[in-house]
Prior knowledge:
- This protein is mostly beta strands and about 350 residues long.
- It has 2 helices and 25 strands.
- The chain is elongated.
Amino acid sequence: xxxxxxxxxxxxxxxxxxxxxxxxxxxxxxxxxxxxxxxxxxxxxxxxxxxxxxxxxxxxxxxxxxxxxxxxxxxxxxxxxxxxxxxxxxxxxxxxxxxxxxxxxxxxxxxxxxxxxxxxxxxxxxxxxxxxxxxxxxxxxxxxxxxxxxxxxxxxxxxxxxxxxxxxxxxxxxxxxxxxxxxxxxxxxxxxxxxxxxxxxxxxxxxxxxxxxxxxxxxxxxxxxxxxxxxxxxxxxxxxxxxxxxxxxxxxxxxxxxxxxxxxxxxxxxxxxxxxxxxxxxxxxxxxxxxxxxxxxxxxxxxxxxxxxxxxxxxxxxxxxxxxxxxxxxxxxxxxxxxxxxxxxxxxxxx
Length: 351
């Protein structure tokens, strides 16, 4: 009888040792509600996760959590968070957990993971690692200039309906080292498409999202690390009128949309941040050193459609070596607009 009791006590203790983690697993980690690699412009972003049960136990709940944030995958894998460690926090909260570390730095990648405790105080395994990036957190981080094609908009309403070719902008730059990380921060009003060495950047269409342009203008962040080549490179940008350069259409007979919305010549702003493996950095910005010409889009309007003359497209305009001697210098945009903010909503894409 004594032997039987000892046997079952031993088995019970062994079983407890073998089951040291709760059956709750944290997953679907999000930063600022964004899945995947979130790009945020908050120095203290909000973190969230969901819970999944690995068995059919009922009544499971979270009683605590621990968040760790590191500057590299290696530091995170060793559970040596060099950015922030929340420690064990007694809470059932899983949404909008504010990052509690020191203010984050612009243009960096941060890696994080979560561990939780269940209602019985048993810890979970760590979640898979997630990553988020900071965009340009401070207005002073923007050193680029808003530029346009240097033309003036018509003074007569009828002239807005004549051909006004979409401007093409190009800038060549040299990269002589091995690139570790490169990000393009860009916005264009009304719409823009960007390319690097003739290849389109990203898969967004109709960017940026429509806002009240005199209050807020959204910009996107693109990872272009793999698109930069050793030697000469070329950035290209084409602009459309979008909702920024509307025709003077009269709504209900008298309301001129141009008089009630921020408007002007199509414009863009861009900053390419390049980090090399030797620790040095390079910055390519939109300014008056770019060149601007005209492309195949002869007229475009969100209301009236688009007219394209494919024979007018300058072959290779967004590649290195293009003869742009006859192209002119852009002008600095002077119309007042709102502050720049990172675009967080899911982009429009071709599906």
